[in-house]
Design brief:
With about 475 residues, the protein is an alpha/beta fold. Helices cover about 30% and strands about 25% of the residues. Helix 1 runs parallel beside helix 8 and helix 3 packs parallel to helix 6. The protein starts with 6 loop residues before the first strand and ends in a 7-residue tail after the last helix. Bound molecules: flavin-adenine dinucleotide.
Length: about 475
Amino acid sequence: MTERQTSVVVLGGGPGGYEAALVAAAIGGSVTVVDRDGVGGAAVLTDCVPSKALISTAAYVGQVEEASKRGVHLAEGADVDTTLEPELVEVNERILGLAHAQSHDIRERLETVGVTVLDGTGRLTDASTVEVTLASGETRTLTADMILVATGSTPRVLDTMRPDGERILTWKQIWDLQEVPERLVVVGSGVTGAELAQAYLGLGSEVVLVSSRDRVLPGEDADAAELIENVFRAQGMEVLNRSRAASVERTEDGIVCTLQDGRTVTGSHALIAVGSVPQTEGLGLAEAGVELSESGHIVVDRVSRTTARGVYAAGDCTGVLPLASVAAMQGRIAVAHALGDAVAPLQIRGISANIFTEPEIATVGTGLASPAAKEKGSPVEGEPGIRQILMPLATNPRAKMDNLSEGFVKLFAREGSNVLKGGVVVAPRASELIFPIALAVQQRLTVDQVAATITVYPSLSGSITEAARRLHVTVED
Ligand SMILES: Cc1cc2nc3c(=O)[nH]c(=O)nc-3n(C[C@H](O)[C@H](O)[C@H](O)COP(=O)(O)OP(=O)(O)OC[C@H]3O[C@@H](n4cnc5c(N)ncnc54)[C@H](O)[C@@H]3O)c2cc1C
């Protein structure tokens, strides 16, 4: 007799949903993914992938100038103009092409492993039933042993600065821009605001970054935020600190942003980046017994269970940490738990995150200053019992060769045990350099174990072992 397959319905095909579907299919589930806007989710189609592709493109604009700082100049009499200028329509076409190709690949992978993908909008009618309105208008009712809700989040919209898709934009609307904005006012200096402000600055916009706080990137490592704010200013960005935007309105040929103290900032366009809200309304969650927090996020435990038996949730709709990597891990954990596979609960400790500015800011164990991360005991600046060291990259030989004067490696260790608790790297491609630190934090290595590992000479990772060496405590200490 063959065992009945566990039926799994996944609501939302972003990283929280599609990764879970792949794992569920691999361990024998019968899986349906219902997705409204395109497999891959906002991560692939509008947020993560396109923004990183834009940032990568912007980096090319300054290459001629960068080369000349290293003594490499255009050949005498070369028949080329030294000014690089982006054609935004072409840039955006390439970016959206990449995003759609990735979405297509994910869908193909899902279908190849036997997952049914339905294009439509779903809602729970109870804890084991999902009603789907297909894109065709038809409805379908699916019953499931396990439901995974992974419906993501959407940009926060304020009545006083309503996006119109033309001049006042959310980050989802910038991909339709036909030309690089002449003067872009970015409202909000969190990760999205900071990353996109610098990308458009690189592409040639005049940029004003409006920040309500004392410095950009509130909640992130203070040294890193200060460094990046200085870089922004040195590159010509106007950063307005302690300047809360009260409203953004259209003018005849642009926008005007009025600050709470009455000052005004004008621009050709405004990008509103004031956070996200979970997409949990109208899903029938409360009726199915799923508890929501005051902010509308789905309450989950460390194996992604909600308060309704059989209903799990993953990704931005849970508010654990708004990262594609975390969404995917939550989804994998959920199906492993529901389908009886080996499962390790989500650990905040070893999660690394990156801010894709230039230089990048990568963190692990610290800098993830969400209330959830702090609750889990990750070391934060000034916490008792934590020692720290900051090594500027300026002294690193590889950094000198690469003309890097900005950036640092910072490590945190627990006093007494000398176990590495976290780190911050500010450097080009810090997103790659953070991995050895994350591995050490996850595996609870001591600073001495890290320091004893021989790195390549010359390399930026040499600064990681050097920082660990400096955190060594002699017996007399
Ligand atoms: C500008 C920007 C840049 C970012 N860059 C990074 C980065 O570099 N690295 C990183 O790790 N994270 C990044 N993030 C965060 C990352 O995009 C999110 O954490 C990630 O998208 C969360 O995945 P998810 O599966 O929860 O949701 P999503 O990716 O939003 O997917 C949710 C899916 O659910 C669907 N859906 C919603 N409601 C329904 C419904 N009722 N029925 C059916 N389907 C539904 C949606 O259509 C969507 O396809 C970035 C975010 C932004 C805004």
